[in-house]
């Protein structure tokens, strides 16, 4: 009977473990009707940075965590609802996971826990004016939706308080994200808004943003590094990421003191976006034309990409490989073979020093049979690894070429 009781308790406990990703509901609220409109809801991509690697919450039935933001000012509402909760007296001393403190410590002070209070402040969004300097305006969806991009600094009046609310999104949508030291005046912020009208009033809704840190570069230059970029889920698939990154490029390309533009630990999605824009832009340069691409990667490409587009050598090489693949007939065995060999030679460079060290180690061995075995294993495994690396790289390049073809 005791074993059966333990089993029942265990089953009850397991039934009260829910996914934190599924339990959290975000909304960017433009009007009161959005509060009850499920179409305005979106989920986090991840929650391990708040709830741990298992991304789970224990101790609640029908748990719902509401994180609502007014679309312009980012006034915040944080609510928790459930139909039942584990208590120590019912579950032999077991307590439900703490939720409120884990999330509230990430939010800017002053958020609302009463939905009526939150709703009463929504009307203030009508008077919102974006911070900073307008950099670019454009339209999508056949001109039916309008967007604006602004650039801010830490000295922009009122912006840092706004940024404290804005950066809370990164915990749920960017892996390994952390809040930045926004007091450092080397930071630059690029924000993208949707501009729309309600009853003749011009309104704004935050759609995404990027942060850039301007590093010092000897002797009197700067090297901007893109740190974070996020387009919020309701605004994805409109090409806003490309517009935002392209605006950052335009902002820095014209500055003589900028050496090149770098990226901090780019995700796969961001790298594809970067490849697409850089390939599109480099494809217009003389040194990246088909006749030059056929002759292989050249110093002229590195120099022109850096001088005109602030692209560093490593990224210029990657763009060269993308554009050369575009002009390579993969059904022509000799053309395709030359292309693969060119890319594999580049992929193999980081391993050359390691192979040389391994060779010196094998030469010190007295056992000739062991020397041969190590040589065979090393050569065979390296060829297999190199082929896998190449296939992965070509797959990435093909995705970029598909997007280029859609222009």
UniProtKB/TrEMBL annotation:
Residue ranges of every copy of the Histone acetyl transferase HAT1 N-terminal domain listed in the record:
17-175
- Has the keyword Lyase been applied to this entry? no
A molecular-function term among this protein's GO annotations: histone acetyltransferase activity
Query: Its catalytic activity?
Result: L-lysyl-[protein] + acetyl-CoA = N(6)-acetyl-L-lysyl-[protein] + CoA + H(+)
One GO cellular component assignment for this chain's record is:
nucleus
Describe the location of the N-acetyltransferase domain by residue ranges: 183-258
Q: Where is this site: Interaction with histone H4 N-terminus?
A: 187
Top EC class per UniProt?
transferase
Keyword terms of this UniProt record? Acyltransferase, Coiled coil, DNA damage, DNA repair, Nucleus, Transferase
Q: Which InterPro entries does the UniProt record give?
A: Acyl_CoA_acyltransferase (IPR016181), GNAT_dom (IPR000182), HAT1_C (IPR048776), Hat1_N (IPR019467), Hat1_N_sf (IPR037113), Hist_AcTrfase_B-typ_cat-su (IPR017380), Hist_AcTrfase_HAT1_C (IPR013523)
Write down the EC number.
2.3.1.48
Signal peptide positions (record) = none
Active site per database record: 264 (proton donor/acceptor)
Give the Histone acetyltransferase type B catalytic subunit C-terminal domain ranges.
274-325
What does the record list as GO biological process?
DNA repair; subtelomeric heterochromatin formation
Q: Which domain of life is it from?
A: Eukaryota
Q: Where in the cell is it found?
A: Nucleus
Q: Does the keyword DNA repair apply?
A: yes
Pfam name, any one:
Acetyltransf_1
- Major localization class: nucleus
Q: Which residues form a coiled coil?
A: 351-403
Family the entry assigns:
Belongs to the HAT1 family.
Protein name in UniProt: Histone acetyltransferase type B catalytic subunit
